[in-house]
Design brief:
The protein is built from 14 helices and 11 strands. By secondary structure, it is an alpha/beta fold. The structure holds pyridoxal-5'-phosphate.
Length: 373
């Protein structure tokens, strides 16, 4: 007997399991699941976290967990505001700055609109764009590693994303260029400056927020503050922008334990953070020098990682990994420097940390380069 359905019969492609059309070109984030003895691949704080933050986690009692956190982390916003030097109404928090970027894309651009960003930059940007139905427009960096202000402004994008220091290339963007993008943006365009690594650069454009209600700066406690596993990010911008980001983000995104540890890290933990940022900066100079002495061409970094254009990067990274050392391999990068042209768009990115770890990574690199010819 033929069954009659009283609901519309959908074609194969319309089944709920196939997801929205905008997800068709999106893959799940693929991280290597094996644990490396020395992991210099993700730009986290390899010295750990401020002892004040771990003490706050140990002190957190059962009620911290059985009840909901504050919907928009009001207490955490206050201490972040003090740290950045603005008032709390200019801050939104999120489950990592990933969450803030995703929410901001959803809040300010309609599906079908464009988001322009320098290329190469943070790989999640085109992904969050697609997930939100936006069209990613990659604008190559100028040679070497600079911002193409005119091309970004000409991209007819609703959102212009900049990252300073830029991941993966490591350099801080020229402040004049950032200011030119903000000044040249139309009144209906949002400019996002991702400052995930600002602590290591010692520079920030947060001060420009007072002059522009179209600038949103994003930050994180995953890098200098050592709390990547707790997932805490934040945005700084005009209160009207902050409200839209919070609406798109939804309540309760920063969990209670993260809130406790974040509060401690940004208050009592600050001396520890500053001390370890200084160590990271020293390690970054030393690693850059070591690589240069080997005849290689690392890019100048203002972050806690060093970008090294290098032919056969993936093969070299695989050999390093077999010695227990993980670094990030990048392939097919747009050749925006002489060194990247020579390496055919292949590069490695090394997170800096305690020098013993970096030394092991250098030995693994030397050995891998020999065996890769
Ligand atoms: C430039 C940049 N922005 C944002 C993030 C996301 O950081 P989180 O979501 O941990 O705050 C990262 C992480 O590597 C990054 O490199």
């Amino acid at each position: 007997m033929t069954e009659t359905h009283c609901f519309p019969v959908r074609s194969e492609g319309d089944r709920p399991s196939s997801g929205r059309a905008c997800l068709r070109d999106v893959s799940r984030y693929a991280a290597d699941p094996t644990i490396a003895r020395i992991d210099l691949s993700d730009n986290t704080n390899l010295w750990g976290m401020p002892p004040a933050a771990s003490a706050a986690l140990w002190r957190a009692g059962a009620t911290t967990i059985t009840r909901y956190p504050q919907p928009y982390s009001e207490r955490l916003k206050e201490v972040l505001a003090d740290y950045v030097g603005v008032s709390a109404e200019l801050i939104a928090t999120g489950c990592g700055s990933d969450d803030i970027l995703d929410s901001a894309f959803r809040a300010f651009a309609e599906p079908g609109e464009r988001i322009a960003f320098p290329d190469p930059t943070f790989t999640m940007v085109p992904t969050f764009a697609r997930v939100n139905g936006l069209t990613p427009v990659a604008v190559p960096l100028t040679d070497p590693y600079g911002v193409d202000v005119d091309a970004l402004l000409a991209a007819d994008a609703r959102i212009i994303y900049l990252c300073s220091p830029n991941n993966p290339t490591g350099g801080a963007l020229c402040r004049d260029a950032i200011e030119a993008v903000i000044a040249g943006a139309r009144s209906d365009q949002l400019v996002i400056v991702d400052e995930a690594y600002a602590e290591f650069a010692g520079t920030s454009v947060v001060g420009l927020i007072a002059q522009s209600d179209r600038l949103l700066v994003t930050r994180t406690l995953s890098k200098a503050f050592g709390l990547a596993g707790l997932r805490i990010g934040y945005a700084i911008g005009d209160p009207a922008l902050i409200t839209e980001v919070e609406k798109a983000r939804g309540p309760y995104k920063v969990n209670s334990l993260a809130e406790r540890a974040g509060l401690a890290a940004v208050t009592e933990g600050l001396p520890w953070v500053r001390e370890h940022v200084a160590l990271a900066i020293a390690a970054r100079s030393r690693l850059t020098r070591e690589l240069t002495e080997r005849g290689l061409e690392p890019a100048e970094s203002a972050a806690n990682f060093v970008f090294l254009p290098l032919a056969c990067g993936s093969a070299i990274a695989r050999r390093m990994r077999s010695r227990g050392v993980a670094v990030r391999a990048l392939e097919n990068l747009t050749p925006v420097s002489e060194a990247l042209r020579a390496s055919k768009g292949s590069a490695l990115r090394f997170t800096v940390g305690p020098w013993e770890l970096v030394t092991e990574a250098l030995s693994a690199l030397d050995e891998a380069r020999q065996s890769c010819g």
